[in-house]
Design a protein that fits this description.
By secondary structure, the protein is an alpha+beta fold. The protein has 17 helices and five strands.
């Protein structure tokens, strides 16, 4: 009895097991391509990603040339080139592919780095691959290698919702001649961990929002006048620079109030004595009262201030004719973004990426700003 039928049956069974590992949605396409030639079927073992990429090509990719290379017995590197598929994908299992494979980084340094950060979990492999592709597209290859490493380390902390902002901040971290870079307090570096990167990116977004809300010109109407009372000096925080300086000196969160200032809901003042910053004051409406009120008055690090200082602040407030102050407010979300600041912030990114993404439009958008 010949053992050849048994060998053929064994190979068919092995191929079937490999094909079953592809996502059910794409099984028919993968099987149809594998059935066209034994060498194409062999990719299920030697290069699962290439078989998938040829069966489920991404938009505007014609797989014919790569398929011909495989059928002709060309080396895998030669066959993968017309499919624009990096060879490091050979190490990924069929379970990693749940959508057409996007463009992926393939620099020499990246290839060396990515080998150390491949996903160990079949379940997490698709998310890992998508994050690597997005990081490369949104930022650059070093960011793609970094996100691959951080996802393998702590997959629960690396989510697609976080990646866009982190990548935008990381890209501007490497662009020293841009306004976006000037607003960064802590730039991205490859040795950062995910939590530190998220924190620094959020801080940058806060300053970006302040800049987009206030623009370059000082707030024209501070409601009240600078002045002195009982030895204390009341100074307006009417610009990006004064707000940022006060926030740093007083260790508080004033930088988060850009939207409140733009919507005419608040005004900020610095209280000083003998040139020293003593407290930060926020003026706003309280409940149904249409007149200005003392809403917050706090010292460095948000500590409570004395009863005396509250009384001084109230005396200063009531030196003004409060009935004449226009405190009409914008409805939340309706105050316009500064038209000069928006393109100044994002133009370098649009030009470098040669596109204007839908999430970062040309027209100033409060929605886009809030979704970063």
């Amino acid at each position: 009895m010949s053992c050849r039928p048994l060998q053929v049956a064994g190979r068919s069974e092995l191929l079937e097991r490999r094909l079953r590992r592809y996502h059910p949605r794409f099984q028919d396409a993968v099987r149809a391509l594998a059935a066209r030639h034994p060498r194409l079927a062999g990719l299920a073992a030697s290069f699962p990603a290439l078989l998938f990429a040829l069966a489920v090509p991404r938009t505007r990719l014609d797989p014919a040339r790569a398929i011909a290379c495989v059928v002709d017995g060309a080396p895998l590197a030669q066959a993968a080139a017309p499919a624009d598929l990096p060879l490091w994908l050979r190490k990924l299992p069929p379970e990693a592919f749940v959508r057409p494979i996007p463009r992926l980084p393939d620099g020499e340094l990246f290839r060396r780095q990515i080998a150390n950060h491949l996903p160990r979990s079949l379940k997490l492999a698709p998310c890992w691959l998508q994050l690597v592709a997005e990081a490369a597209e949104l930022a650059h290859e070093p960011m793609a290698a970094w996100i691959a490493r951080e996802f393998v380390r702590e997959p629960r902390r690396v989510t697609t919702a976080r990646v866009r902002l982190i990548c935008l901040w990381a890209w501007f971290s490497s662009q020293p001649t841009t306004l976006g870079h000037d607003l960064i307090e802590k730039p991205w570096t490859p040795d950062m961990r995910i939590d530190a990167a998220c924190s620094a990116a959020r801080e940058w977004r806060t300053v970006v929002a302040l800049h987009a809300n206030l623009g370059r010109m000082p707030i024209a109407d501070m409601w009240l006048r600078p002045g002195r009372m009982a030895g204390y000096e009341f100074m307006p925080l009417d610009s990006i620079a004064t707000v940022v300086e006060e926030a740093k000196a007083m260790r508080n969160c004033l930088r988060t109030l850009g939207s409140s200032l733009a919507h005419n809901h608040s005004r900020l003042w610095s209280i000083r004595k003998d040139g020293e910053r003593i407290a930060t004051l926020r003026i706003s409406r309280r409940y149904r009262d249409p007149l200005p009120n003392l809403i917050e008055l706090q010292g460095p690090g948000n500590i409570e201030v004395s009863r005396e200082l509250w009384w001084v602040a109230r005396q200063w407030l009531h030196k003004h004719d409060l009935s004449q102050i226009d405190m009409r407010q914008f409805d939340w979300g309706t105050a316009p973004i500064d038209r000069e600041s928006w393109p100044s912030l994002w133009r370098p990114y649009w030009l470098a990426k040669r596109r204007i993404p839908h999430w970062l439009p040309v027209a100033p958008s409060r929605t886009a700003l809030e979704l970063l």
